Amino acid sequence: MTAVAALENADLTAADRVAVRRRSVARPLLYGALVLCALLTLLPFFWVVTGSLRSLDEIRSDPGAWLPTHATLDNFVRLFRTQGFGRFLVNSVVVAFGVVAGNIVAASAAGYALAKFDFGGKRIAFGAVMAAMMVPFTAVFVPQFVITVDLRLADTLTGIALPGAALPMCVFIMRQYALSIPDELLEAARIDGAGEFRIFFRIFLPLAGPAVATVTILSFLFSWNNFIWPLIVAQSTSSYTLPVGLAATSQAAAHVTDYGLMLAGAIVVMLPVLLLFLFLQRYFVQGVAGTGMR
Amino acid sequence: MTTTLSPGPARRPRSTRRTAVAWLFLTPFLLVFLLYTAIPTVAALGFSLTDLRGTDLRHPFAVDFTGLDNYVRLFQDDSFVRDILNTGLFVVVGVPLTMGVGFALALALNSGIRRLRGVFRTAFFAPVVTNVVAVALIWQYAFNPNGTVNKVLGAVGFAGPNWLDDPNLAMPVVILLGVWRNFGTAMVLFLAGLQAVPRDVYEAAALDGAGRWRQLRHITLPLLLPTTLMVSVLLTVFYLQVFDEPYLLTNGGPLGSTESVALYTYHQFGAGEFGTSSAASFVTLLLVALVSAVQFRLLRSRT
Predict the structure, then answer these.
(1) Which of A142, A214, A229, A283 to mutate to test the interface with B (most CBs of B within 10 A)?
(2) What is the C-alpha separation between B255 and B189, in angstroms, rounded?
(3) Contact: A115, B8; criterion CB under 8 Å
(4) How do residues A109-167 score in pLDDT, each as one tens digit?
(5) What interface predicted TM-score (ipTM) does this complex get?
């Protein structure tokens, strides 16, 4: 019942009238508060865009100005010309590609097995997935680094990508989805004499599209935003991913208050994920809310 | 976060062949799990009982077993004790603040508004997916002594401080960044919880004359208790491991006032003290395990 319709209704009780009046006052207040909160939340995005368009001189003379007086793309040009951001970008894309591909293969296979097979040691296997979700990264990164060195993977893109190539939350998402696929479909194929791998590739995977999409987006988000592990593994600029390269660039730039360069770099790092988020919001929200990961 | 371990109804008898096929499907995941979770967890415990240093990696026989020495030294180290207190501050201030903002926004978005609802949700969730390195730089830009924040303060007559160089003010700014990044997660989880409350419960309460406030107190909050528990544990685990925000904004400074346990672990690792670093990381693991155990206990007692 909308407020207007309610007011026109002759049979209103006194309580209803109070409620309607209260709502008509409360509604604009609520919207006002929400708009204010949204603006505050989005303020950093405004700062990064305006700041990245300001020249070095302008920022030095007044670091706190809200808008550029003469907008310039010079910071972005310098990023790729002198700071090696082209290489970082390629590295980030390569690592993300590896992580996503690894998760699609490893998570769909493992999730399928955990949901659709009754086998010896199933509890142990599922326990491994839960354990992997709970062990904090901080607790294991020292041995992870030692192992990476032992495998001769230090300072390589493979070394950066490998630990994230089979994320437990992706296995979990796949398992939950596989549970919802009727067994009869798989049984029918089995009776027709199809082998287990054929059933997996021809029957299960084509049906698992939505879960594959969620896994793709979550693992991409994880890989693109991952910071500590690449920071530990990458030792030379040639294997820096974007966040590591941005952190290194900004440490040098901060000393000379070259904020424009830093903020332009921030945009390059943020933009791909934010664009994906705008178009595929549903998957992001489901994925992050469902697994509590970022 | 609650999951049943029980397999579905048995469809066919277990066969060795099917068991083998299942394990084959699990192999890629298990390889990564063994290499990067199982072995490292055991190894971290092992390392923490030795004097392993970064320079020993090529000379494994130079490493000595030192028992609990690392742990004893950790708790004698004033900076580690300070970092535990700092991490505690992140949890005690960050968790309620993040939950409060997330809950308030979830309530607002669930109050029956239609217009712009999607836009608001997008705006509030955007920080969750935004790269933290990038955001930290924006924070530095805005909070620099002559930055936008101080400019606004100046306009209303306050002399803006040097936020990130002040041992008393750096921590609030670092926590603020944590809250900004995490409240969207809390909001989405609370929204899911709110939407699971049946409408007619509220209608019945309204018929009985319960106002908005009493509905919130006597219906929403009690029904949302499991969600609240889940969110609080999730955020506690986040903040117990807090690393990105202090590392990027202050690197633990000024004077160690924002150094967390995770950052201590990292700094010891960077200094080549792998044994000490592993001991510190194991303290984090124990704290996280403790919180998770409490969560499971609480959830089980309610269901």
Answers:
(1) A142
(2) 37
(3) yes
(4) 999 999 988 888 889 999 899 888 888 888 898 899 999 999 999 999 999 999 999 99
(5) 0.84
